[in-house]
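Collaborator request, handled under Task 6.
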Amino acid sequence: NGAGKSTLLKVLSRITEPTSGRFVMNGRVSSLLEVGTGFHPELTGRENIYLNGTILGMTRKEVKQKFDEIVDFSGVEKFIDTPVKHYSSGMYVRLAFAVAAHLESEILIIDEVLAVGDAEFQKKCLGKMDSVAKEGRTVLFVSHNMGAVNSLCSNCILLNNGNIVTNNKTADVILKYYSNENSTAFFEPKTKKIGDSNIELISGWVENLDGKIQNSFNFNESFNVCMKYKILTEQLSIPVPNFHFYYTDGSYAFVSQPASEKVKEKGIYIAKCNIPKFFLNNKTYFVGLAITTYHEVGYDVNFWEQNALSFIIKDEMNYSEINRYNYHSEIPGVIRPLLNWKTEKIS
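Structure tokens returned to the collaborator:
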């Protein structure tokens, strides 16, 4: 956040002039930036489609050829002759994406506006962007959704404070994104309080069974993920610590929380989650630290610090108890539990 991504896209879309420097683009640009950019609120959906086509240099005939396809994709055909100022944010984004993706531009710029749409529409948009890219057109996609980035992009650029941190293959950049200065075996808030008026995060860490902080474990080792927190005021409802474990592409491995929790009094507490041996695969994992207070109706998230911790699971493949037999390649999967099996002869 605040790295300059959206500002850069506005410059490339010729909405904002650069303070200094220059950029070169080869082809027509179609952009989908934040909600409200690119459409005239007083014009209808139909009129805005033709307006955007004209801005791209397309003739009315060319836009008309694409019109039915745009409206069908957007799903707003009932309101196509209604001024877009009356559209919901979801309707607006659906039509705006349909226009940007279907009009004839060589470069498609998409900011993280897809968060407004529902899951089905997001999937539809990602599919369309993938097909646009396969047509030989350039897609510039900005997102915090690592699953979407991983599925769509072949190359990534990581920005921080307006500077390029790395420009590389997607998997390498995603790993770098998660492996920021806070993603270690120990986490402590440095400059700001993490929490609300009820509960505050003090620290988090990964430790071996002797209590030593460690960020690398063998597949046949058990270890603990820990969090220290402070309950500032006695609670009427029960705050429940929970850890979010996810893989380098942003996909969840699992979420864990205590089966029963009774702590409500003021004080400082340490919550520990034991990770058994023979459970995780030989991967890099990231942990989000959170506390959720559950009420009789609904719940409140007191804090959630994403990718606060990281650790590595190694498979040295030099012990016989991990059911590899003579298989020496990488075993697929985010987790790799050693489960109980039973084989019986029945005939």
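The cover message to the collaborator said: "The chain has a mean pLDDT of 84. The radius of gyration is 25 Å. Please let us know whether this matches your experimental observations."
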